[in-house]
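Hi L.,

You mentioned the student needs an example of a multi-chain input paired with its predicted structure. This one should do, with 1096 residues in total across all chains.
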Amino acid sequence: MVTFITRRLIVSILLLLGAAFIMYQLTALAGDPLEEFYQSRLPNKAQLIAARTEALQLNVPAPLRFFLWLGGAAKCLIPFANSCDLGLTAQGQKVTDLLPMAMGSTLQLVTAATVLAIAIGITFGIVSALRQYTTFDFVMTFVSFLLYSLPSFWVGILLKEFIAIKFNDFLGDPQLGPIWIAVIAIVIGLLWVGLIGGEWRRRVSVFIVSALATAAVLVYFSITDWFLHPNIGPVFMLIMSAGIGLVLTAMLAGIRNRRVMLVAAIQVVITMICYFALQSLLDISSIYTLLILGLVTLVVGLVSGYLVGGQDRGLNMRVGALTALLSAALILVDRLMQSWPQFLGQSSINGRPIATVGSQTPGLTGDIWMHGLDSFTHLLLPTLTLMLIGFAGYTRFSRAGMLDVLNQDYIRTARAKGMPERVVIVRHAFRNSLIPIATIVASDFGALLGGAIITEQVFAFSGMGNLFQVGLRLPDPNPVMGYFVVVAVMVVVFNFIADMTYSALDPRVRTRG
Amino acid sequence: MKFSRIGVPIAIAAVAAMAVTGCTTTGETPTQATGGTVTVAEVNELTSFNPNTPQGNLDMNAKLTGYTRSGFFYIDNKLNLVPDKSFGTIEKISDDPLTVKYTLAKTATWSDGTPVTADDMMLAWAVQSGYYNDSKTDADGNVTSGTTYFDYAGDTTGLGLTSLPVIGDNNMSMTLTYSEPYADWTLINPIDAPAHVVADKAGVALKDVLAAMTSMPRGDASKPAAPNKDLKAFADFWNTGFDATSLPTDKSLYLSSAGMVLDSWTPKQSITLVRNPDYKGDLKPKVDKIVIRFIGDAQAQVTALQNGEVDLINPQSSADTIKSLEALKNVTTLTGNQFSYDHLDISFNTKVFKDPNVRKAFLMTVPRQQILDAIVTPQNPDATLDDSQLFFPGTDAYDASVKVNGASVYDKVDIDGAKALLNGAKPEVRVLYNTKNPNRVASFQALQASAEKAGFKVVDGGAENWGSLLGSGTYDASIFGWISSGVGVAGVPQIFSTTGGGNYSGYSNPQVDQLAQKLQVTLDKKAQDDIQIQIDTMLFADGYGVPLFVAPGVMAHSNNVTGVVYYPGQAGIGWNYWEWAKK
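Structure written out for the whole complex:
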C-alpha cells in the first residue's frame, strides 16, 4: 500500500510539473500582451510598452520565464514560511492575494449546486432504476439527456428571463390565473404518479389527490397574497414535520417499527414546541446562535433515540437525528419567510427580490434573515443553472449503478430468502450502488474550484473562472497559472482520495502491500 | 428511569438555552436613503486608487478618480474644457515664454479636512514632468543607470518643458514657465494624489520632500546623480502604495476632493460611494449614494438593468446588445461615437503604392458605406461616414475640415474611376488586419470583393500577431484602429510626421512634417484647427488612406434616473455624475 501511494505521489508531481509547463507555454502563446498599445495614439506609447515588457518579463522567452515563475511557486512548498510567490498580475496585484477571494466566490457559487445535484440526481436515478422502463423512467431519461445537452449560458439566460424578471414582475400583482393553477397542478400530479407508481387505480388516485392538493394550495396562495407574506404556519409545520418523520421511518426502519416511530414522533413534538418557543430567540439570532441550535438539535435527536432504547439503538438515533434536523430546517425556512415582506420593502430591493447578477445586494442592511434571503435570491439562479446540468449526469450514473446492482445474484438471494423489499433496496442494493458514484463525486469535488467559467460570466461572479479568463485574454500567465495550480492540485488530490475511497468501500479492489 | 428520559433532554435544553442566548445579536436596523441611490454597472473591477502608474492605468481606476477627485477643469461631452472655479483657476500670464498660473480656491479640500494646497500641485508636477528622473532604460524597460522616481503612465513632454514651478499666494498657487510653447497646455491638470498622505505613508516628512524638490536640479541622464532618499521613498509609495485588492483599513489612501467619497468595497462585487460631507465645491451631487457593480458580460448588464438591479449601464457595444436594450420598457438607450476609429492605411514604402494613381485607385474601391452599414449602423443609426483623419465627427472642426479636405472623393465606390487610373494594370496588394477581430475581418472581405472588381489582386495578409507586424514592411495596406483621447494635438505628429512613433505607413511629406512641428507650438485653438485642416487635406491628396468608421458606443439608463448624458471618452458614463437625480 505504501509503495502504491508513493508511486502515485511521484507520478502526480511529475504530471503537475509537465502540465504546468505546457499550460504556461500555451498561455504565453495565446496572444500579444502589448496589443492594446499598438492602437494607442499616445505620445508615450514606447514607454508604456517598455513598462509592460518589464512587468511581465516579456524579454525572457516563455520557456525560460516558466522557470522564473516556478522558482517563486516552489517557495509555496516551504511550510509556514509564508513565502509563496505566484507572481503579480499585469495590474501589479499579487496572485496569492487574488486566489483566496476568487476561491471564495467560486465555492459560494458551486458548492450548493454540486451538493444539490448529487442529492437530487442520485434520488431520481435510484427511483428511475426501480421503475425501469416505466413512463417515469423514460421521462427522466429524456429530461436528463435534454438538460445534459443544454449550454449553461443559455440555461442561465432563460432562468433570468423566467425566474427572475417574470417572477419579479409577477410579484407586483401575485395572482395566479386558473390556467396556471391547472397546469402546475397537473404537472405536480404527474410527477407524484411517476414517483409513487403502482397499479392503475392507485395511480389515478395519487394523481387526483396530489393535483387537487396542489391546486388548493395554489388557490390559497393567490387569495392570501402568500407570495408577498409567505409562511409555513403551525398547521403545515405539523403536517410537514410529521411527514418527514413518517417517510424517514418508512424508508430506514419500516413502518412497523414502533420504537423508531416513537422517536420520530418525539422529534415532531419537540419541533412544534420549539416552533412556538424559539421565535423571539430567532429574531435576535446571529449565525453562531443558529450553529449552536443546530448542534443542540442533533444532540436532542441522538439522545432521544438512544433513550427510547430497543434492539437497534443506532437506527433510533439515526432516524431521530435526521428527523430533528430536517424539521428544525423547516423552522428556519419559516423564519426566513417571515422576513420576506421586510426584505421586499427594502429600497435597494424595491420589490424585485430575485437577482440576476452578483452574490449580494450592495448596501443592504438588516439581520441575518435579511442577509440570508439576499444570498438566497442571488444564488438561486446560478445554483439552478449548475444544478440542472450537473444533476443530469448523476441521474444517469446512479440509475446505471443501481440497475447493475439489482441484477446481481446476491440481490436475488436476498429476495429469495424473504427479506422485505425495503431492506433489499435500502440496505443491500442502494449502498453498493453508491460505490462507483463515490469516485465520481470525489473527482467532481476536485473540479469544484475549477469553477464554472461560463456560468460565472453570465451571473457576474468573479471567481476562479474569471481569474483564468481575464488572465488568458491579455494574456497574462501569472493569474492563469495561479488558477492552474489550485485546480490541478485539487484534481490530483481528489483523484487520489477517490482511489483510496474505492479501495476502502469495495474490499474486492483492495491491493496487497 | 422515568426522570432521566424526560429530565436529561430538559437539562440539555436549559444549558443550550444559556449558551444560545449568550451569542445573539440585535441586528442592524435598516436605514432608508433619502436622496436616492444610483447603481452603475461597470465592466472592470478597481485595482488601484492611483490610475497614473503603468499597472494602475485601467479604465475603472480612472473612473473612480472622476467621482472622487476635483480638478481645474473637466471635459464635457462636446469635448469642451469646462473650468471648475470652485476648485481653482487657470490663468495664462504670458505667451512668450508660455507662463501659466494655477490658483487653488479656498473651497478645495481633501475629505480628511486638509485643504488642497500647492504641495499637492508640486506632487502632480513632479510626477507629470519627470523633472527629477535621470535614468537611462534599455528597450525592455530596465533601468540601466540613474533613477526613475515616479513611474508615470502619462506623457511627460508637456510639463517636461517647464522649469521649477514658482509657488505663491500663501502656498495656494503654482506658476509654470515653459521653455518653448506647448500646444496642449490647456490639458494640463496639475493635481494628483494628496501629498500629505503620500509623505505620511512613505514615512518621510512632507517638508523634507518639498525641500528636496526645490533644491534638486533637473535630472540629467548623461550625468546620473545619487538618488535623493526622501524623494525616492515618496515616489516609491506613489508608484505602488495605492494599489489594492480590497478596501484598505487606512481611509487616507482613498481621500476625496470631489462630491463623492468611497465608502465600501466588496471585492469582486461592488463599490459604494457616498456623498462627501466635506465637499464645498460647485459640482455637488444630487444623489446620496452611487453604487458601482462589476458586471463583465454585456448581456448580463442588460438583464440587470431590466431587473432593476442597476440603473445605468455602459457595456461594450454590439448589435445584439442594442437590440435587447431597445426591447426594454422604461429604459433609455443612448448611442454615439467612441474616440476610436478603424481605418485603412496605405504603406508608402512598398513598390505597389509608389504610384499615387494606384493609391487613389485602391482607395476609390473601398466600400466605406457598405462597411459602415454592416458594422456600425445597427448599433448607431445616426452614424455617418468618417471623413477626417484628424477630427471626430460631431465637432465643429470636423465640419470645417470635411468641407475642404477632399475626403468626399472616397465616399462612394468608383470602380470605373479606379479602372481608368489603373489603366489595365493588375497590382497585387497584401492587406494586414487582425484576424481575431470580426469587424476587421468583415471590413477586409468587403474591401477584397470590391477592389478585385477594379482589377486589384487583394492578398489576405491577416494575422493574429498583426500588432507586432505593424511597420514591418511586409504588407501593402493595413486595416486597424486608432484609440485616442479625443482632445489635444500631441497625437498628430506622432502618427503623420516622418519620424513619428506611430507612423507605421512610412508616410513622409515635408510639408506635413513642418505643419505638425508648427502645430506642437501653436497655443491658440483656432490656429491649431486651421493647421490640422491643412494636414487633413494633404493626407487625402497624398492618398494616405481612408478612415472606415468611428467605433460605436452605447449607454443605457433606467427612466428612474435623470441627467444621464452620453459620453464618448474614457471617463465613461459617470462624467457628469453630479447631475444625476433619482425620480
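You could point out the following to them. Chain B has 17 helices and 20 strands. Confidence is low (pLDDT under 50) at residues 27-33 of chain B.

Best wishes,
N.
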